[in-house]
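Summary for the steering committee. The consortium agreed at its last meeting that each partner would contribute one worked example illustrating the joint modelling workflow. Our contribution is presented below. We chose a case with several input lines so that the handling of multiple components could be demonstrated. No manual editing was applied between input and output; the record is shown as generated.
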Amino acid sequence: MTTSTKITYSNLFSESWNNIYNLINSKSNVVDPTTSSSEFRKWVFSREPDIKASEFTGYPYIVVYNSEVTIETESKGKSLDGKSQIVIWTIEIEIVTSDRGNNNTDGKGQVHMDAISDDIVETLMNKSNRNTIRANGLYFPSINPSGVVPEVKSNELCYRRSFILGYKSKMQVSA
Amino acid sequence: MALVIKINPANSLSLEVGIARLNRVHRNLPNLVKEGTRQWGTTLERDMKNSAARADIKAFTNTLFTSGIQWRQRPNGNIGLLFIRLYGVLLDSMKPHFVNLTRSRTRLLAWALQAKSANIRRKASEVSSKRLDKIGIYVKPHPFINNGWNIGRPKLRPILNKQVQLGLA
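What follows is the complete predicted structure of the assembly.
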């Protein structure tokens, strides 16, 4: 796991994503409902994993998609020399769970979905976490969850939910 | 999302501030919706490509994972469309049928040489090495459009919400 640092004009995409990914990928923040605290399982990805690959470790998993950056060059908030502009980040987090499992984890897709969603909202709304990412340059958090979408894949019932995160800041975008 | 503008009747300046704020909403909202639609469109495009990959459609057969699926929106337009190449639509909803596999059908032969079924791979290699002139293979649809749409559609509201919240913050 890499550490999160302050967002500057040279790392607008990478560091904004890193800040959110590191929050979600921490076991103390978002708990994997299928493993114990001593076990390790890679379950937070940056893209949709290949579920047929031999190294796929199963459901549930979380995808933190790459951040999208909008620099508002026409906005009133920019500085006179144009070096500081309003920047808006959009980052999508997607949770995928499945009803298929072993023994007592079978049929728990929706239970896992709600547990993970609770943890994600708690993590993102946590005052200390908000202060940390604000110190790194992500202000005005906007957290927008979507509904749960059931999806059937090869006779396996999966559930998906997305969180659309938005952040805004006025920052230096040029040296 | 609710936007609350407090106006104090005793203060005439308060009314002017309120009107200025309403004007700002009126001025910015069209651009926010336009940008929100564009963001949702690119998300839908990605979801559709992921759905195609999950439906076992192979990337090498054509351009479905590049320009074959793309969100098209004019720079100043609120409306966009998700363009999917015709062969993608046919792949999604065709009836199962037999096709003749010959050496002249190079793309089909390339697919058959890497097919999941060992039987099709063996027969395709015999066609490729001229031991057979042609074979008949049974092809089935790979439905992916409905699935991609079902995943992408619910994201419209959160994306527009985010746009309005940040745009008017």
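The beta strands of chain A are 44-45, 61-64, 68-72, 84-98, 139-145, 149-153, 156-172. The two ends of chain A are 29 Å apart (CA to CA).
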